[in-house]
Design brief:
This protein has helices at 43-46, 52-59, 69-75, 87-93, 114-126, 140-152, 162-167, 169-177, 191-199, 207-218, 233-239, 241-252, 268-283, 303-306, 349-356, 367-381, 387-406, 424-431, 442-450, and strands spanning 6-7, 17-19, 64-66, 83-85, 98-103, 131-136, 155-161, 181-185, 224-226, 259-263, 292-298, 308-313, 322-327, 361-365, 411-416. By secondary structure, it is α/β, with parallel strands linked by helices. Strand 10 (259-263), helix 13 and strand 11 (292-298) form a beta-alpha-beta unit. The chain is globular and about 60 Å long. The chain starts with 5 loop residues before the first strand and ends in a 7-residue tail after the last helix. It comes from Sphaerotilus microaerophilus. Tetramer of two alpha and two beta chains. It catalyses: (1S,2R)-1-C-(indol-3-yl)glycerol 3-phosphate + L-serine = D-glyceraldehyde 3-phosphate + L-tryptophan + H2O. Belongs to the TrpB family.
Length: 457
């Protein structure tokens, strides 16, 4: 019996294309709407924010989209990323299940986010753009875009959610090391930020607010565009290199997952691991095995399990188009739990769509249980997960314990989307008993949902 721990692909086995789930969907995803006309947006509507190459990817229905060679050249620094068999965790849990994890923490920025930061910077430089603005929660995306900006010589300005800006100073230092400017959001630099600070000077911030600030600045200058780290189709597309590699590596292991798991905030790392497996199922043939695809989200910001499937703005100041997604309302401000990358009011439209089609499941867990799972994983496997990734770890452990109760030797695959080396204060708080299972305000949620835009049927 093989006792292999890690499955490694060579650089020449790295996928040359991204996979686009839109090509295989049985029902197309709802159109993105212009908030003024309520008509589907066209390329010209998006051009103030994105270069045309990314806009074309956003609306593409081609199954395969080529990864540019300059992007693949940068990827070779850490891709293909390893697939691990979690044999030590299996033993610690006493489960008959086989647990595998795809580890994205090997990237220079420590997470999956450079998978889209690198191509976004590349396409913007190709279009002659000199500056990118963006938002970030925990800082994984901000540091990844800062890294990409340093490689391609493009200026990066990051609006970081205030509560995370205060919680994670080392992530901020990493952005500055790569040459980016990082400011806490809401800030006095934008009209959106000033309006919110006028109402509440100590506002903890939200990803929706930070998006508003970044979009506002990008729309004012021709040499500046906006970059988003999750939610949009082209971002999810770029992340599918994760699942494409995992399919090859699971074949190397002579195995095939019964359950595929990812944490969900905006949806990018989940889509990265899950969409290629969903695509195989939809296309039929010998690889069309029915798999359970499980999205794990924070109970304090549960867009998939508590949100309403409706058209909503992607930001708080309502500067973005309307997308149909599972949403808690664009004015919803989640409590300041440590998984800052999962504190977004909405879920990626494509992830929301496949949830509505019944292709995925969703569960929500509180943060203390997720940190407990992360510590169990670290003590068995040696890798300290990011707080966001702890949700996927928790999901995998729950599935493995289910298999133990039921006596089933199922195969579980999850995406370990990043390491927690810049998040150790969260672990310090956990061990000191300072973490709380924060809950959102039901009244605020109801108010935010009551303000959803009216869209004609």
């Amino acid at each position: 019996m093989s006792d292999t721990i890690k499955y490694l692909l060579s650089e020449d086995q790295m996928p040359k294309d991204w996979y686009n789930l839109a090509a295989d969907l049985p029902v197309p995803a709802p159109a993105v709407l212009h908030p003024g006309t309520m008509q589907p947006v066209g390329p010209d509507d998006l051009s103030p924010l994105f270069p045309m190459s990314l806009i074309m990817q956003e609306v593409s229905t081609e199954r395969r989209i080529e990864i540019p060679e300059p992007v693949r050249q940068v990827f070779r620094q850490w891709r293909p990323s390893p697939l691990f068999r979690a044999r030590a965790l299996e033993k610690a849990l006493g489960t008959p299940a086989k647990i595998y994890y795809k580890y994205e923490g090997v990237s220079p920025a420590g997470s999956h986010k450079p998978n889209t930061a690198i191509p976004q910077a590349f396409y913007n430089v190709e279009a002659g753009i000199r500056k990118l603005t963006t938002e970030t929660g925990a800082g994984q995306w901000g540091s990844s875009l800062a890294f990409a900006g340093s490689l391609f010589g493009i200026e990066v300005q990051v609006f970081q959610v205030r509560v995370s800006y205060d919680q994670k100073p080392y992530r901020r230092a990493l952005m500055e090391t790569y040459g980016a400017t990082c400011v806490p959001s809401p800030s006095p630099l934008t009209q959106a930020g000033r309006a919110i600070l006028a109402q509440r000077p100590d506002h903890p911030g939200s990803l929706g607010i930070a998006i508003s600030e970044a979009v506002e600045l990008a729309a004012q200058r021709d040499d500046t565009k906006y970059a988003l780290g999750s939610v949009l189709n082209h971002v999810l597309l770029h992340q599918t290199i994760i699942g494409e590699e995992a399919i090859l590596q699971m074949a190397m292991a002579g195995d095939d997952p019964d359950v595929v798991i990812g944490c969900t905030g905006g949806g990018s790392n989940f889509a990265g691991i899950a969409f290629p497996f969903i695509g195989m199922q939809l296309r039929g043939g010998p690889n069309a095995k029915k798999r359970r695809i499980v999205a794990v989200e924070p109970a304090a910001c549960p867009s998939l399990t508590r949100g309403q499937y409706a058209y909503d703005f992607g930001d708080t100041a309502h500067l973005t188009p309307l997308t149909k997604m599972h949403t808690l309302g664009s004015t919803f401000t989640p409590p300041g739990f440590h998984a800052g990358g999962l504190r977004y009011h909405g879920m990626a439209p494509m992830v929301s769509h496949v949830k509505e089609l019944g292709l995925i499941e969703a569960v929500a867990y509180h943060q203390i249980g997720c940190f407990e799972a992360g510590v169990t994983f670290a003590r068995a496997e040696g890798i300290v997960p990011a707080p966001e990734s702890n949700h996927a770890v928790k999901g995998a452990i729950e599935e493995a314990l289910r298999c133990k109760r039921e006596g089933k030797a199922e195969t579980i695959l999850f995406n370990l989307s990043g390491h927690g080396h810049f998040d150790m204060m969260a672990y310090t708080d956990y061990f000191a008993g300072k973490l709380q299972d924060l809950t959102y305000d039901e009244g605020e949620l109801a108010q935010a949902l009551s303000g959803l835009p009216a869209v004609p049927a």
